[in-house]
Amino acid sequence: MRCPGDEFASRRRRSLCEGGRVAQPILRTDRLLLTPLADRHLELEVQLDSDPEVLRYIWGRARSRDEVVASHAQRMALAGKVDGLGYWMAFGSDGGTSDSAAPQYEEGGEFVGLMMLPPAHGPDQPDDPTVSDLGYRLVRRY
Questions:
Q1: d(Cα 93, Cα 70) in Å, to the nearest integer?
Q2: What is the pTM of this model?
């Protein structure tokens, strides 16, 4: 499904009209821009998960590219399961200092990490759209 006026639509409007459902919103805080996870972010995920320090308490080791590709596909599928839940890539500016502002667009920012609010999906969790998980991974320098 195409959004009406796709060729002229703003990034925000395009992000809200994907496949006939309301997509994850673009979020903004005082210092961060959070954009919904997309295939264009795969290399950032590989960079993040290839750092053993980032995954020290999760996996105890860095992950291979193949493992990250598989996780990315799973995240993309889960993100479409419940409107408003999913995964966001965080971008900041000026090294994340307290006086920095959120970048206008991800291309103008520094990759900070992966923010996660997916529907519950563990083997011991109910298949209930009102239940979700919460997590994040930050690039080491943050």
A1: 30
A2: 0.79
Contact (Cβ atoms closer than 8 angstroms) between residue 13 and residue 3? yes
Q: Is residue 14 part of a domain?
A: no
**Under DSSP, is residue 58 helix (H, G, I), strand (E, B) or coil?**
coil
Of 121, 32, 46, 47, the C-alpha closest to 85 is 121
Question: What is each CA distance from 22 to 41, 77, 83, in whole angstroms?
Answer: 20, 15, 6
pLDDT digits (tens, 9 = 90+) for 48-91: 999 999 999 999 999 999 999 999 999 998 888 888 889 999 99
Domain span including residue 104: 24-138
> Parallel, antiparallel, or unpaired: how do β-strands 33-36 and 86-92 relate?
antiparallel
**Which CATH number covers residue 120?**
3.40.630.30
Length of the chain: 142
Beta-carbon contacts of 70 under 8 Å, excluding residues fewer than 6 positions away, are none
